[in-house]
Hints:
Layout: H1 6-9, H2 25-33, E1 40-42, E2 48-50, E3 52-53, E4 56-57, E5 60-61, E6 64-65, H3 73-77, E7 80-83, E8 88-91, H4 105-125
Amino acid sequence: MAEVSPCRAHSCDRCCWRTRMTLTAxxxxxxxxxxxxxxxxxxxxGIPQLVNHAGHCVFLVGGRCSVYxxxxxxxxxxxxxxxxxxxxxxxxxxxPWAEEFVFSDRDKRRLRRSVAAExxxxxxxxxxxxx
Length: 131
């Protein structure tokens, strides 16, 4: 039996409100292939980002992710984040259940690869702005 995630166990959707979740090209392709449209825009750095509808992620329906099985890589790995100030992978203290998640070194490498892919793809599109 699959383990229930802390977010599901606690009926938490906090990270889905006013989200700024960025997307890789693979995320966009996967979601579009599933028939999803109008779910992202380019942020100021040129990276695709989930849009909000009525203050929450466009995919949040009735407190649940409507694309859970094909959700973006960043959503799969959250609350792991890359702290751009320290270049360290850490748990986001915004998540009230962050300490209940179990992450491996492989997950941390996946997060770094995902962030690097987003930046590389934005540079290739000519829209990347490095702060």
